[in-house]
Amino acid sequence: MKTDKLVENAAGRLVPEIINGEHHVPYKGVNKHRPSGRKAAPPIPTCIDYPWDGDKRVASIKEALKKAGLRDGMTISTHHHLRNGDYVANMVFDAAAELGVKDLRWFPSASFPIHANQIKHLESGVIHHIEGSMNGPLGDYCSRGKMRGTAILRSHGGRWQAIQDGEVHIDIAVIAAPTADPFGNANAVRGKAACGLLGFAEADAMYADKVIVVTDNLEPFPVIPWQIHGNYVDYVVEVESIGDPSKIVSGTTVLTRSPDRLKIAEMAAQFILEAGIMRDGFSFQAGAGGTSLAFAVFVRDLMKKHGIKARFVRGGSTKYLVEMLEEGLTDYILDGQTFDLEGVRSMRENPRHQNTNPFTSYNFHGKGNFASLVDVVVLGATEVDVNFNANVVTHSDGRLLHGIGGWQNCLYSKTVILPIPLFRDRIPVIVDEVTTLVGPGELIDVIVTERGIAINPRRTDLIEKLSGSRLPIRSIQELKEEAERICGGKPQKPKLGDKVVAAIKWVDGTVIDVVRQVLD
Amino acid sequence: MAQIIFEAGNRGEKVRSDCWIGLEPRTSGGLQIELTSKVEKLYGESIRQLVREMMDFFGIANARIQVEDFGAVSFVLMARIESAVRKAGLDGGKRYLPEYVEEVPPPVRDRFRRSRLYLPGDQPKLMLNAAIHEPDGLILDLEDSVAPTKKDDARILVRNALRALEFRGSERMVRINQLPLGLTDLEEVVPHKVDVLLLPKIESPEQIHQIEAKVDEILSGLDEPRELFFMPIIESALGVINAYAIASASPRNVALAIGLEDYTADIGAQRTNEGRESFYARSAIVNAARAAGIQPIDTVFSDVQDMDGLRASVLEAKSLGFDGKGCIHPRQIRPIHEAFAPTPEEIEKAKRIVLAFEEAEKKGLGVVSLGSKMIDPPVVKRAIRTIDLAVKSHLLDENWRENHENG
Prior knowledge:
The structure holds two protein chains of two kinds. By secondary structure, chain A is α/β, with parallel strands linked by helices. In chain A, strands 18-17-16-15-19-22-26-27 form an eight-stranded mixed sheet. In chain A, strands 5-14-13-10-6-7-8 form a seven-stranded parallel sheet. Chain A has a three-stranded mixed sheet with strand order 9-28-29, with no helix packed on it. In chain A, strand 11 and strand 12 (about 185) form a beta hairpin. The two termini of chain A are about 20 Å apart. By secondary structure, chain B is α/β, with parallel strands linked by helices. Chain B has three domains: about 5-85; about 115-340, Phosphoenolpyruvate-binding domains (TIM Barrel); about 345-405, no CATH class. In chain B, the strands form three sheets. Chain B has an eight-stranded parallel beta barrel with strand order 5-6-7-8-9-10-11-12, surrounded by five helices. In chain B, strands 1-2-4-3 form a four-stranded mixed sheet, with helices on one face. Chain B is elongated. At the A-B interface, helix 8 and helix 15 of A face helix 1 of B.
């Protein structure tokens, strides 16, 4: 791709309109883009073509891919509910390589370090490029400009939107299923690799031309609950193991011991109490990162102390959220993924622990967006700038190392809090301008650092509520200057190449920013 | 011919906020700087610039300097480079000092010393954010937390930290080594605005006198005169026997602390949570300190996971008469402050005493009485302190008198 094709989007970032030969719309601003047309749909199947006894099993992944008509240039999707324990995505491309196909587009909901296996398929030409979040080695590979095509990173909701809107057509979806029956009904609440739910794969099941379910725990029909229904499924493959359970969910989730992180989490919890956000019937979302987890625990303690109950809590769930549910501190957990075995157990046993998918939670092109019903969400960031814009995908040196996840979608919560350290080692986290724009500052309300809390000037209501607080409320400019002072002055601007290695999508499918090649 | 490399600092996978320096002096060829850094892209140039400036400062024209950086901030890099230069014997007695980053007020004799947080003197990572957890005192430790081979590195790092680390109002403390190594520590740190020196394993007043003489000598050589206080730590049976003589050995003494780890070993007992084996020693320390008019300070609580145990331990220390407790993790600070905070009953009583005292003063009465009871001056003093502590602990409004009078 040539740089002279870049245009300036509404955020002032230079972005391409053509990526991997396909047209994309530059970002127009928050809530400015309106979609048109009709949703995509897969071809109409007929049951005449499927076994009347409902047994859709085939011998191997390779066989299934062959039957599904795999050929050069196709798009294959996989999902990250098995996280860093996933074997399936690697098996799929190993099989594709054996079949001798080339130039595939891999469309994972996210990739993890275990998927470094795909680097050899990128090198050999089996995979042309990746569209999906890349954590670790693949991000590094992509950052160095080694991938032939341009990566496209989307949020969880943005991935659903792209599939639904026909922006990404999936030829073959491969769904790793901890439990399945021969008809293709599948769930994730049982089996060696139980991970709770399969929400990330639901869009693929509905919209892909062909769907392959891969399981290591085959039960007779019917598998209940059918989180993925067999009527979407073409082939079922039984394998020895779909993943390493120890890397899928943790046995126990351990709270951070970092005094700074604990302090940040505690300040964030205190903030939502003093801001009046924490009140009877409220809702919140916190992930499983060290600080977020600690936040949930401090919130729980404050709720108990002040006799407050929540209506619902959004997962990723952990034993801490499960305890809240079981103690009656919240009526529901609406869960996107489970992070530990307690989360899986609760998902299996408790009807008030509801599984969700990116359609119900996050899809921007839907009839409402329940991310916007959540009172408060706490999220991480690698960088935040003085205009409250935030970055979650690259580091300050420009390297692409993380995915977007549900992060962008959650920015629609009523109050968005980023509890982050002011600096990491010698790297300032609050900067003049984010390296990569992933979240527009107008949706980000509060930055909580160990050395002070900055409230977005747009949130005059919060500023007023906190005016008498003992919490250290400061301007973001002050915090930035303090970060620079501790780190020893303004950092140099890293020299990046001209080559665009990845495009970052906003929740409505427009291109908000790009990632450029890192030079060694 | 193989060159000698003079090393300073730390390296390895788990090292953060620190760096390793390998200095190889040469006779020709200029300066050869080899930098690897996790912040190369952000601060690589400024690190190289610092190395050049320091080589220039020490008059080193030819050397190979390896810098393995793990995100060290400037004052840490400076300390490590200077340390390598000194090991190579090329410092010429000069010191490369960072600027002070904050206004440093003079030390205050009479202040709260409820919590004191130990920071290992050779681990910069733990220093950078220590002050935000608001301990009453921050101790840069040169003694037990520093390995014998790291003493020289730590001394320079601690000196730089005294200038370039924010204390944000926490008392600036350094624990020196036992003599004679402690004398070397004094020369390095005393000129850099230390508030309190913690003196380990003190057994006799003579040891205090020896340190005092050295401190007086160093302080008298400074351009700006400055006060400096001592907190001797008693860690042996003999020390306990000599507690009063030690507590009253110097006008610089402001507090007397007990270190139970070594003490229990010295008396041949196991250290237990109940602490029966140290009851005598702790009471003796409280009594000696009070007799000498200084603060008795309890030992550290070493199980950082056991918050309930910590609270119980602080409440017990308070009941024995101690004014403070040592800690080794920032999360211990708040429970310590909460446990030392006065109870509502104590606050109410103190308010009545203070008001009665002020009333008596207004009326010019020599004797303060509350109801039918006479109140002695030490009780009034104690009540004022309780009120101060209540305000500091956010349990009482600064303007409590107004509210009290308004009903």
